[in-house]
Amino acid sequence: MFPLLYLLLALPIILTLLFRPRNHKKANTTSSRYCLPPGPPCLPFIGNLLQIDGSIPHISLRQLSRVYGPLMSLRLGRVRVLVASSARMAEEVLKTHDLALCTRPPRAGQQKLSYNGIDLAFSPFGVYWREMRKTCIVHLFNSNRVQTLAPIRAQEVRKVMEKVSKSSFESRPFNLSDAMVSLAGTIVCRMAFHKGSYEEVGEEGSRVQGLINGTQAMFTSFFFSNHFPLLWFVDSLTGLNRRLDKTFQELDRFCQETVDEHLNPNRVKHEHDDVLDVLVRTMNDGSSRFQLTVDHVKAIVMNLFIAGTDTAAAALVWTMTYLMKNPTAMEKAQEEVRQVVGRDKGFVDEQDVKQLPYLKAVVKETMRLQPPAPLLIRESNEDCILGGYTIPPKTVVHVNVYAIGRDQEIWGDDSEEFRPERFMEKPGDDNKKGLDFDMVPFGGGRRMCPGMHMGLAIVHLTLANLLYGFDWEMPSGMERQDLDMEVILGLTMHKKNALCLMARKYL
To answer: PROSITE patterns this protein is in (predicted)?
Structure first.
């Protein structure tokens, strides 16, 4: 494995020596137009790739930024990269120069799985992206629509509570990681597509879980073509392209089935159109400013399902993990929800959630320490000035949300500690709507996550009921300090190992 890796890394150097640019004068003139920020020394051709741990790049970049400053430059293979690691630099990227930095760089895995970049998350900024975002917000993500769909969230959370009760009665550990993915996926499918719970159709649950895992793996795999365009063939030699094609075929089959359900004239009609109804109708009547195809619609299905499921599930698992490691915060959150709701009601509804400031502070503190997306990725589409440096087009820019959330200049000497009280001392907008750049768990500017309200509604309601209905303990033979905090990256940052806990019924 390692000899092959070193051989592959050495191959670009050989190619570079064989194919040097002939017009040195022109190359030097072009580079002299720009002034890039400081960064670590890089090796010929491969740049700084060996200095970045691919499994935890946000941590590697944070460590480097402590040496080279809040805005540093790197070269990852042939790709020029800037990393913003402070709230001030995040504001420049996400607000001041948002228009110049509002597109996304094309990457092999993402391009394939997003139907060649025609989805909402990875499509370039332009008319198509604006129209699709508007459609999704109006028919799914706006606050009124999210509130209208509250009964769906309540129904699915009640089902989870029943499962936890059964696990408690049988005195066996409850796998919160699997349960939260299932819950979030079902809620998203019902709200966005009027699709029933995939748990109700036997093996469909395992199929969907496999789709999510496979897609996440492809989004974060190392493709040589992303960093060394001339070495595109290496991805085929390693078998990565074959795995990507297989994952795409499985994902496409799921998306096609979802679209076909909405194309069926005998389909059960619902009171409100879901977002897929609107897209299918737009595709059929040609009312859009551009011609929608089935692939456009399937790309949006992929986005809503994968991203919507992933973010809420990861946030819930991390929140319960931090509460288990911090029993004082757990007791305080449970006391709050039980006092507000009372013992007789039996279920926390979304009106009750509005009266739970400490629970919301717990969620914020979790997202500060473990943001769903630790690195926000943008690409410059024109010359712009960041931190006094002139940045050329086609420069990839990462905003290190993980580093900003642990910055001692913002959060104090206890920035690494889990202390929800800091948000009670510093009250503000519950949702951190991309305007307060000391914490941007949902991004900011034009590319801010449109599903923020939906995601938080799922997280708050589920967490409140888990804390209200049960006391939580470690499985036999385990202590709280045994809980690991290892991560695995995908579209979002998941806990690597499943969170399995014992639930003791409170009510």
So the answer is: CYTOCHROME_P450
For residue range 406-457, what is the model confidence (pLDDT) as tens digits? 999 999 999 999 999 999 986 554 444 444 799 998 999 999 988 888 999 9
Q: Calculate the alpha carbon distances from 156 to 68, 74, 153, 205 in Å.
A: 48, 45, 5, 15
Is 124 in contact with 305 (CB distance < 8 Å)?
no
Residue-wise pLDDT for 446-488, tens only, equals: 999 888 889 999 999 999 999 999 999 999 989 998 899 999 8
488: helix, strand or coil: strand
Q: Say how far apart CA 242 and CA 398 lie, in whole Å.
A: 29
The reply to whether 102 sits in an annotated binding site is no
Instruction: Tell me the C-alpha to C-alpha distance, in Å, between residue 295 and each of 80, 112, 137, 244, 306.
Output: 31, 12, 20, 17, 16
* C-alpha distances out from residue 284 to 61, 140, 154, 293, Å: 47, 20, 34, 9
Chain centroid to Cα 389, Å, comes to 29
CA distance 81 to 64: 13
Alpha-carbon dihedral sign for residues 265, 270, 271, 272: negative
d(CA 358, CA 178): 26
Which residues, 6 or more positions from 343, have their beta carbon under 8 angstroms from its beta carbon? 507
d(CA 150, CA 55): 37
Which helix H or strand E contains 404, and what residues bound it? helix 401-405
Q: Which domains does the chain have, with CATH numbers?
A: 2-505 (1.10.630.10)
* Helix ranges restricted to H, 19-105: 24-31, 57-68, 87-91
DSSP string, 181-207: HHHHHHHHHHHHH-PPPGGGGTTHHHH
